[in-house]
Amino acid sequence: MRSDANIAGPMTDPVPGPRTESTGEDVSRETPPPMDDTPIGRAAQLAVEALGRAGEGLPRPEQTRIIVVANQKGGVGKTTTTVNLAASLALHGSRVLVVDLDPQGNASTALGIDHHAEVPSIYDVLVESKPLSEVVQPVVDVEGLFCAPATIDLAGAEIELVSLVARESRLQRAIQAYEQPLDYILIDCPPSLGLLTVNALVAGQEVLIPIQCEYYALEGLGQLLRNVDLVRGHLNPTLHVSTILLTMYDGRTRLASQVAEEVRTHFGDEVLRTSIPRSVRISEAPSYGQTVLTYDPGSSGALSYLEAAREIALKGVGVSYDALHAHIGAQSNPNMVEGIQ
Ligand SMILES: Nc1ncnc2c1ncn2[C@@H]1O[C@H](COP(=O)(O)OP(=O)(O)O)[C@@H](O)[C@H]1O
Ligand SMILES: [Mg+2]
After folding, report:
1. Which of 74, 127, 235, 322 is the most buried (most CB within 10 A)?
2. Domain count, the chain
3. Ligand 1 mean position to 183 CA, how many Å?
4. What is the distance between the alpha carbons of residues 170 and 165, in angstroms, rounded to a whole number?
């Protein structure tokens, strides 16, 4: 596996071809302002969208799937992917826990979870051995979605963990002792490969790597993959990279499709066919303490995360996305998979 990519080509060369959206700054198609912009109107709209896209009967895994969302680069869409995939899976009918393992607490914020310094948090779980059940909070807007928040205390945990017993497997132990039934646990990692990320890799079975479609997209990935190999070899034999998700995909640029092609060449089937478009709605949602699924359920960002969640759920039970779509016809929006062969 190469650790870097030499992606030639200008950064902003527009290319004719399939487009997600009409022209404009934001390439995503957003929902027109709702006729009834009230909480009830919103809730009704959400319900309609969720029912329309959630596809009743989407398979739930037999055992809890623990997915580590990792990439030591900052700003590639780890947190955005964690919270929006988690909300999508919950809207598909699953029970989902988000573990916020980044001291910044962005996932907690995006899920509307209070995480000021006094709130019981994942720090207490890792460092003070507090049971996970004592820090998990339900996410108000989305049934079946829960969050173990991070507070600023977690910033000290990288250092404090060093001297503790079983420092690499404290999260794994906490998750194993957690008795609530869950279909998925998604762990949002900080942008580093320190002990917090190692704890996530020891606790999980699958690694999901979000890759931003930009120059140097693959730089540093070799290091992450080597860490995954090390953890698999020494601490967690079941760990594997199961999923690559292309984020902030901008169909107007040749660069984005070049990066997508490069990523496919390296990772093949692990790359989801659905890519996530760059969308203003996705970036706005966290400031309202919401995922894009509740903030603007009809936006291209919401629909693409629902579609990505569907792919992940199907892959988990060995159903081919292609076969399914051949079967149900062009039910999904073809724009969702644009740029992907
Ligand atoms: N698909 C997207 N469209 C627009 N903005 C996005 C998208 N995905 C992420 N962002 C924005 O990019 C920034 C970095 O994303 P984030 O998920 O916080 O990355 P990370 O967790 O890897 O540091 C945030 O401001 C986020 O709102
Ligand atoms: Mg983050």
Report:
1. 127
2. 1
3. 25
4. 9
- Is residue 200 a part of any domain in this protein? yes
Model pTM score: 0.82
Q: Which two tokens stand for residue 93?
A: 């009918």
Give one DSSP letter per residue of 208-264, joined into a string.
EEEEESSTTTTTTHHHHHHHHHHHHHHT-TT-EEEEEEEESB-TTBHHHHHHHHHHH
| Residue having the nearest C-alpha atom to atom 5 of ligand 1 | 283
List the shell of residues around ion ligand 2, using CB closer than 5 Å: 78-79, 102, 106
Distance of CA 55 to the CA centre of its chain: 20
Domain membership of residue 48 (yes or no) is no
**Enclosing domain of residue 93:** 60-340
Kindly report the protein residue whose alpha carbon is nearest to atom 9 of ligand 1: 77
Q: Rounded to whole angstroms, how far apart are CA atoms 190 and 330?
A: 38
| 303 alpha carbon – ligand 1 mean position (Å) | 16
Query: Ligand 1: does its nearest atom lie under 6 Å from the Cβ of 276?
Result: yes
C-alpha distances out from residue 309 to 61, 261, 277, 305, 335, Å? 13, 22, 15, 6, 16
Residue range 157-202, pLDDT digits in tens = 999 999 999 999 999 999 999 999 999 999 999 999 999 999 999 9
Within-domain flag for 97: yes
Q: Please identify every stretch of the chain with a pLDDT value under 50, giving residue numbers as ranges.
A: 1-29, 32-36, 44, 47-48, 50-51, 54-55, 327-341
Residue 171 is assigned to a structural domain of this protein: yes
Q: Hey, whose CA ends up nearest to atom 13 of ligand 1?
A: 75
Answer yes or no: is the C-beta of 248 below 6 A from any ligand 1 atom: yes
